[in-house]
Amino acid sequence: MMELDAIFCGDALDVLRTLPDNFVHCCITSPPYYALRDYGMDGQIGREERPAQYVVRLTEVFSEVRRVLLPSGTLWLNIADTYCGTGSKGDHLDPKNPSGRNEQGVSLAQRVENVKAKDMLGIPWMLAFALRDHGWYLRSDIIWQKANPMPESCKDRPSRCYEHVFLLTKSRSYYYDALAIAEPMAPSSIARYKRGRIGGKYAEEIPGQNTIRKTSSELISGVEQQFKEICKERGISLEPAQPAQKQPEQDIEKLYMVDNEKYIHVQRSDTGIDYTIYDAASAKALDGGVLDDTGQLLSAAALTVCKLHNIGDAAPIRLAPLELLNGLQEANELPLGAGEQITGTVVNPAADPLPDLPQLEQDYPMPDPIVDFAQMYQFGYTDGNTMLPLSKERARELFLQDVPIFVLNSDNTEYMVLDTSDLDAHPGIFGVERTEWESVRDTLQPIRDIVAPKQPDALSYLHDDTAKTQPENYLKNAEMALEDDYGMIDGIINNGPKQTVAEQEERSSILAKLKAPVETTNRTEKHAPKRSAEKEL
User: What is the arithmetic mean of pLDDT over 148-170?
Assistant: First the structure.
C-alpha cells in the first residue's frame, strides 16, 4: 500500500505516472500560464510556440490526473488568459528589469496564427473545452476577483482583475459539500415566509411549491446520507469525540532516505522533534538538531530538515525501514539518543586519552546546550578552561549580537571570527571566551530554534511568534548615527546668529575635539593569529 501524507517533488507528468488508479480524492492546481513566465528550465510548460501546443501538453498532464482521481473526485483548475503580441519584442522586458521583476523572463510577445495583435487568446476556455473533449465534466466556471490586482499600463481597455477557476469532475456523480458554503437565510426572508404560512400576500400556495419542498428535502437527506457513507469509508466516527489518546508508535519515530545519499532520522520528544542526518555510504552522523513540534507530520518535519541543510535539491524523500537505525547509530563513535545533537563534523577518536574535562558549578548556563566539552575535546581543541564550545548556528546568533566568537581548530589553536564568511567556511566547532560569556549572557536574546529561511548576512529567527531579522552591521549603523550628529551640530553652528571672534574660536575648539580620535581603554583579550593583511585592522 502506498504511503499517505507524503510530498513528491519532480516533473508532474512523471510523478503522476507512478501513482495508482483511483487513488486521489481532489486535485487543486494552477499550472504555468501561457507565455507569461520563463522559469529557466528545459521543457517547461508555458513557453510553447503556439497555444495549441500548450493546451495539448496540459491535456496530457490532466489525463493522468483523471486516471488517479477517485470516481467521486474533483479537479479545481486556476488559469488566466494571455494577449497576442506584435512579434517585435521577443523575450526582452522592461529596460529597468531585463531579467523580470522576479528574476524571470516573461511575455513572449509573439504573433499567433489566425489571431490579431492585441487580441485575448482565450486560453482558459481553450483548455476547458479540450479537457471536456477528453472526458472531463465541465461543471462550473468560478471567477476569482482580485481586490488588489497588478496595475497595468494599458490605456485602451480595463485592467485585468480576475482569473478563472474551473471545477471539473471525473464522473457524473461526485462529492460536493453544498452545505459547507451555504449562507443563512436573511431575516426578511424568514419573516416573509412566516407571514405566508398564516395568510396575507404569500398565503396562497404557489404552483409546484410542494414539489420544491419535497425535492429539497430529498436533496438534503441525500447529502446527509452521502456524508455518512464517506465518513464510514474513511473510518471517521460521527460519535462524540473521545479524549485524545496517545499517539501511535509508528508516528513517534521514522527514518527517511533522501536522494539515495542521506538518511534523516526524526523522532518526537519532550523538547520537540529531534532529527539526525546520516551519510548513507559511510553511515556517519553528519548533523542534527531539534525542530519545534507544531503537530506536523514527521514527513513534513523531514522536508523542513532538507530545506534547513540544503539537502536533496527538491528530490523526493521516501520512507526507509526503521531497523536500519540501529546500524547507523552503532557506526558512530558518539551514539545519539533522543534529543542529543552533534556539530556537523565527523569526530575521530584520539589516539591519546583526553585531558580531564573542566568542572563547572552546578546549573552553570552553557551558551549552547547542544554541544559540550566532550565533543570539543574529541574534535581536538582542549582549552576548556578558557573557551566554551558553540555550534555553528549558536555562534552565528551570538556573533550577530556583537559577541566575540572564535573558530576552534583541531590542532588546539583558534582565531577570531571577523565576518559571517568565517562562520560559513568552518565545518567544526566554535567557541566564546568564558569571561566574555559571563559578562553578556544576561543581556542576550534567548536561544531559539532557527526555523525561518536564512537571508544573506543576516539571521532569521522566531521571537514571540514573529519572524524578525537581526541587523547585519552594528558598526555601520553607529557610524551613520555619528555622521547625523556631526551634520546636526554643523547646521546649528552655521545657521545661528553671527558669531563673535571668541565664539568662532570656541567653535573651532569644539570641532577639533569632535574630530579628534577617541581614546579607548585597553582591555585584556585573547588574541588569535592574523588571517590575512586584508582583514588586519
Answer: 90
Contacts of 121 (CB under 8 A, 6+ apart): 34, 51, 81, 82, 83, 84, 112, 115
**Is the predicted pLDDT of residue 462 greater than 50, yes or no?**
no
**3-state class percentages of the chain: helix first, strand second, coil last, to nearest 5:** 30, 20, 50
Taking the C-alpha atoms of residue 425 and residue 434, their distance in angstroms, rounded to an integer, is 24
How far from the centroid of its chain's Cα atoms is residue 462's Cα?
13
Q: Picking from 194-208, 345-359, 456-470, 491-505, which range would have the lowest pLDDT averaged per residue?
A: 456-470
Q: Which three cell numbers stand for residue 145?
A: 476577483
**Helix, strand or coil, per DSSP, at residue 289:** strand
Residue that has been written with the C-alpha cell 396575507 in this structure: 200
Residue 396's CB: how many other CB atoms inside 10 A?
Answer: 22
Residue 206 CA from chain centroid, whole number: 57
User: pTM value?
Assistant: 0.38
Decide: 163 and 82 in contact? Cβ < 8 Å.
Answer: no
Q: What is the pLDDT of residues 387-405, one digit of tens each?
A: 899 998 888 888 888 889 9
Distance between CA atoms of residues 201 and 203, nearest Å: 6
Which uninterrupted H or E stretch holds 85? Answer: none
